[in-house]
Design goal:
This protein is of the alpha/beta class. It has 9 helices and 8 strands. The strands form 2 sheets. A 5-stranded parallel beta sheet has the order 2-3-1-4-8, with helices on both faces. Strands 6-5-7 form a 3-stranded antiparallel beta sheet. About 35% of the residues are buried. Bound molecules: adenosine monophosphate. The site of adenosine monophosphate (AMP) has 16 residues, from α2 and α3.
């Protein structure tokens, strides 16, 4: 089964963690624009240097830059491979750009999963989030801790906190999300692509909710 999905939702709702689990379960590719941008920052490319200041301020990198990263990635994957776009699109303009990229490639979205969590949940989760500095795997010291403190279970890389997970930046990121990304919810609802996932619970429960939503897509496809 090929799925072509977008994951929407505020920072800290668990988009990345749920996308990671579902991509593994369905053998599809997780494309996280945040991770791809962080790789550019790590490698100190021109793009990375420009992006770092913007990301550290809790704002969005410009639409054209992010869309071209996604276009390259999708074009290189070939049209037979399913994917989860995790954190893209984040503006109406990006949604329009995605539509034309996919049209060019001759593919279409199956669904947009809106991963929803309350402000209290978000703040608690981002406070405990750490990430592997080598492979990017995400942990939460409260809910999804690593087996050995400070070390990635998969590759033994060092676990670090993201620069933009500081309380004052989290507040900015939430504000940017509400202003620029939340309008995408009605955009995709009007296109009849939106599925809302309650992600306030434990990780397993949230993944179950997302998988149930995907089952509904399958049923619709089979009709
Ligand atoms: P994330 O890992 O998805 O939380 O993204 C981290 C940061 O990368 C965001 O706060 C933005 O600064 C930047 N970023 C990621 N995806 C996008 C996007 N689609 N559009 C603009 N900026 C993005």
């Amino acid at each position: 089964m090929i799925y072509r999905l977008v994951f929407l939702g505020p920072p800290g709702a668990g988009k990345g963690t749920i996308a990671q689990a579902m991509a593994e379960a369905f053998g599809i590719t997780q494309i996280s624009t945040g991770s791809l941008l962080r790789e550019e920052v790590e490698s100190q490319t021109e793009l990375g240097k420009k992006a770092k200041a913007i990301m550290d301020a809790g704002q969005y990198v410009d639409d054209e830059t992010v869309a071209s990263i996604v276009e390259n990635k999708l074009a290189s994957m070939g049209k037979e491979k399913g994917f989860i776009l995790d954190g893209f699109p984040r503006t109406i303009k990006q949604a329009e750009m995605l539509e034309s990229i996919m049209q060019k490639l001759g593919i279409a979205l199956d669904a947009v999963l809106d991963i929803e969590a309350s402000d209290d949940t978000i703040i608690e989760r981002l406070g405990g989030r750490v990430q592997c500095s080598k492979c990017g795997k995400v942990y939460n010291l409260k809910n999804v801790p690593p087996e050995e403190e400070g070390k990635c279970d998969g590759c033994s890389g060092k676990l670090v906190k993201r620069d933009d997970d500081k309380p004052e930046i989290i507040k900015m990121r939430l504000e940017t999300y509400r202003k620029k990304t939340e309008p995408l919810i009605s955009h995709y609802r009007e296109k009849r692509l939106l599925l809302t996932i309650d992600a306030n619970g434990a990780l397993k429960e949230n993944i179950d909710n997302a998988e149930k939503a995907l089952k509904r897509i399958n049923e619709k496809k089979g009709e």
